[in-house]
Amino acid sequence: MVASTSELKTLFASLDGDADGRISAAELRVCMRATLGEDILAAEAEALVASVDADGDGLLCEAEFLKLALHCDAEEEERTRGLRDAFRMYEMEGKGCITPASLGRMLGRLGNERGVGECRAMICRFDLDGDGVLSFDEFRIMMSA
User: Fold this and answer.
1) Which pTM value belongs to this model?
2) Alpha helix stretches (DSSP H) within the chain
3) Splitting the chain (145 residues) into consecutive groups of 10 residues, what average pLDDT does each group show?
4) What CA–CA distance (Å, rounded) separates 140 from 79?
């Protein structure tokens, strides 16, 4: 999810409750929970802050926050590109989804032969809409599990 600079500035302002132009690692944790649904440890938030904290005060000014957010967006875009490439390898039938048959063929090419029934069962665990195939979004969830 790529956010615009203006959206990130608005987010920063909403996190900066005391309007001092800085947010702490604790506020960053709240941001990540609210925007990404990710709970990170305090130490991880402090490490993220430290990674872009140019003045070493342990807080993020707006410019440092933007640098961190844009870096995270770039990493997420790269991960999504990699997942799309992997998805295309499994999606062999031109249907825009992974079927039990296409999953079986790809697993076979990788030396991990599986029958259609086994592939159907593998897909079923992540088939959120129950259509018997994996969409890209379902594939992304599966790969994150």
Assistant:
1) 0.53
2) 5-15, 25-36, 42-52, 62-90, 100-109, 116-124, 136-144
3) 74 82 86 74 87 88 84 73 87 86 90 92 92 91 80
4) 10
At 54, list the tokens: 């140019």
The reported pLDDT for the residue numbered 3 is 65
Of the CA atoms within 13 Å of residue 77, those in its CB half-sphere come to: 8
What local confidence, expressed as pLDDT, does residue 97 receive? 93
Residue bearing tokens 């604790």: 26
Residue with tokens 């997420």: 76
The tokens for 109 are: 């090419």
DSSP letter at 3 equals P
Rg (CA), the chain: 20
- Nearest alpha carbon to residue 38 among 72, 12, 14: 72
